[in-house]
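Handout, section 3.2

Students often ask what a structure token actually looks like in practice. Rather than define it abstractly, here is a full record for Sulphur transport domain-containing protein. The first block is the sequence as you would receive it.
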Amino acid sequence: MVTDISEKKKGVDTYLKIPLLGGAVIGFAAALIQALLFAAGGPQAYGFCVACHSRDLINYITNSLTGSNLFLAPFSANAVAAGTLPVLTIIGVLVGAAGAALLYKEFRVKKGDAKSYAVYGVGGILFMIFALCMGACPYRLALRIGYGDLVAVFGLIALIVGVFIGIKIAMKRMEGK
């Protein structure tokens, strides 16, 4: 019989909340996934990119429905040519996040007006456009910096400046309320 709360078994999620251990596990998992992508013939620095994988999925669906020939990254194009689907990591991220939120009872639907929905929608579209212009989302940007890509360093600087400006705008709005 357990008499002290500290003697109870700790679950995996308890250990993953330790920043160093959680970061190490996530880093190892990302490196393993990247290695598997290389084994599958994936190009460098394409391991996990929200912007690029979303673009490939949307372009694949559009190509399938309309018979068009929109761009797919070589890794996704090779997968489609082999008779499979393009990279579906964005679907995995959405399903995983929703599953975790439901599991830990943190899933809530926020209600807003049409203006707030429009602002978030336009913001998401602009994020995708600028991420693709920069050549990557922040995940892929970090991978490219790891490969020594100088353009990615400038992209990181631009990302930091953009976040700083966004924080300043948000703070001004908060002070006004």
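Discussion prompt for tutorial groups: The chain has two domains: 12-41, 42-172. How would you have guessed this from the sequence alone?
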